[in-house]
Design brief:
Blueprint lengths: L1 H7 L5 E4 H4 E4 L17 E4 L6 E5 L13 E5 L5 E4 L4 E2 L4 E6 L7 H9 L13 H4 L5 E4 L2 H43 L8 E4 L6 E5 L13 E4 L1 H4 L6 E2 L4 E3 L1 H6 L2 E2 L4 E4 L1 E2 L8 E4 L5 E3 L3 E6 L3 H7 L3 H7 L9 E2 L2 H4 L3 E4 L2 H43 L10
Parallel strand pairs: 3-7, 12-19, 13-18
Antiparallel strand pairs: 1-9, 2-8, 3-4, 5-6, 5-8, 10-22, 11-20, 12-14, 15-19, 16-18, 16-20, 17-21
Helix pairs in contact: 5-11
InterPro entries: Restrct_endonuc_typeI_TRD, Restrct_endonuc_typeI_TRD_sf, Type-I_RE_S_subunit
Protein name: Restriction endonuclease subunit S
Organism: Nibribacter koreensis
């Protein structure tokens, strides 16, 4: 605030309606007509929403030359906005293209940073076009041009630094995950003749049992633990000894129950990656398992089996058994045909011990880096808001 006071040097800030210092244009003549998007094409197709770049088109007519005249694209319903300084075509007519009426009085980049500091989203839950009905009437502080330029300089530098840091942190997270995956694949791959490979449903190993009729409406605040199939790929990791949800003791009497060491598997998903995701149950008490899931009761190391389900060799065997179009499924009887390497119990324990350490490290990084990214974004927003907070001089915005 001291820096801002020094920057203002006692100059009063003029507050003006946003609609008086900006022009807007509908994107009608810039709308894309083809849905044939391809990464090899040149011109990005934009939306003001989170997706931003929907794809790339080879259309050459009706391109907005933002490389010559930058623009703010403003989603007229959600109020999300983006700064664009490259040529593009638009996807939706439900957005406004905002420019400054006079750059010598109000810099467009300054206007963009001020807009970005406003809360986005539907106003009062009202699903109507927001620019004319709401936003163009908002009062924006207009300090002298040299102050606008300094604010833009600081925030542009901060934006670049934040983006660079986020890129580096994301790359670090990706590298650690790749490293973990590499060692998991190596530890669970054996040379020919080194260990025996058996179908998972072999009588000497175990069997797959389908889950029961557990639905979300059956959940209770406390009681007997349960795992619903959807939670396996949204909530749980490789193993757990606590459940997120519960059912009543009465319900549990008629439910399909998994015991300590069983592997609980989601047999239904909307995509091939999530189908057959699993979690090893390491709790002392039995738990109810939902339909669209099954559990594998066996005599192997529970974590060893759970880690095996994450390997590419398991995925390769799983894929031919996937059926369905919108909803992807794998039958429990087909899972029983998948072959798993059977090293000695002590070797299973050694592999699990190594992978547990990698898992803890990767989880720490996986949780730590997103937190760090979130903190950096908050830090940027803090300084942005600080730089764009001006005395209102008894004027209500």
């Amino acid at each position: 605030m001291k820096y801002l006071e020094k920057l203002l040097e006692g100059v009063e800030v003029d507050w003006q309606p946003l609609g008086e210092i900006t022009d807007y244009e509908q994107p009608t003549k810039y709308l894309v007509t083809s849905k044939n998007y391809n990464a090899d094409f040149q011109t990005p197709v934009l939306t003001a929403g989170k997706t931003f770049i929907l794809g790339y088109t080879d259309e050459t007519d009706g391109i907005y030359k933002a490389s010559e005249k930058p623009v703010i694209i403003f989603d007229d319903f959600t109020t999300a906005n983006k700064w664009v300084d490259f040529d593009f075509k638009a996807k939706s007519s439900a957005m406004k293209m905002i420019t400054s009426k006079d750059e010598s009085k109000a810099l467009l980049k300054y206007i963009y940073y001020w807009l970005s500091a406003l809360p986005s989203g539907l106003v009062d839950g009202d699903h109507k076009r927001q620019w004319i009905s709401n936003y163009c009437n908002k009062l924006i502080p207009i300090p002298p041009l040299h102050i606008q330029k300094e604010i833009v300089r600081i925030l542009s530098a901060f934006t670049e630094l934040t983006a660079l840091l986020i890129t580096e942190l994301s790359a670090e997270l990706t590298a650690r995950k790749k490293q973990y995956n590499y060692y998991r694949e190596q530890l669970l791959n054996f040379n020919e003749g080194e260990v025996e490979y058996l179908p998972m449903g072999h009588e000497s190993l175990g069997k797959f049992i389908r889950g029961g009729g557990l639905q979300k409406k059956d959940f209770t605040e406390t009681g007997v633990g349960c795992i619903h199939y959807g939670q396996i790929y949204t909530y749980y990791g490789t193993y757990t000894d606590k459940t997120k949800t519960f059912v009543s003791a009465e319900f549990a009497k008629k439910a399909r129950m998994a015991k300590y060491g069983d592997l609980i598997i989601a047999t239904t998903s909307e995509n091939d990656e999530d189908v057959c995701k699993s979690v090893a149950w390491l709790g002392a008490e039995g738990i109810a398992v939902s339909s669209d899931a099954c559990f594998y009761t066996h005599n192997l190391n529970p974590k060893y089996v759970a880690y095996f389900f994450q390997t590419e060799q398991f995925q390769k065997q799983k894929r031919p058994f996937i059926t369905g179009s919108k909803v992807r499924r794998v039958n429990a009887d087909d899972l029983a045909k998948i072959k798993i390497p059977i090293p000695l119990p002590e070797e299973q324990e050694r592999i699990v011990s190594i992978l547990d350490k990698f898992s803890i490290l990767t989880k720490s990084i996986s949780e730590g880096i997103p937190k760090e990214i979130k903190l950096r974004k908050k830090q940027y927003e803090y300084y942005r808001d600080l730089l764009l907070t001006f005395p209102k001089n008894n004027i209500e915005s």
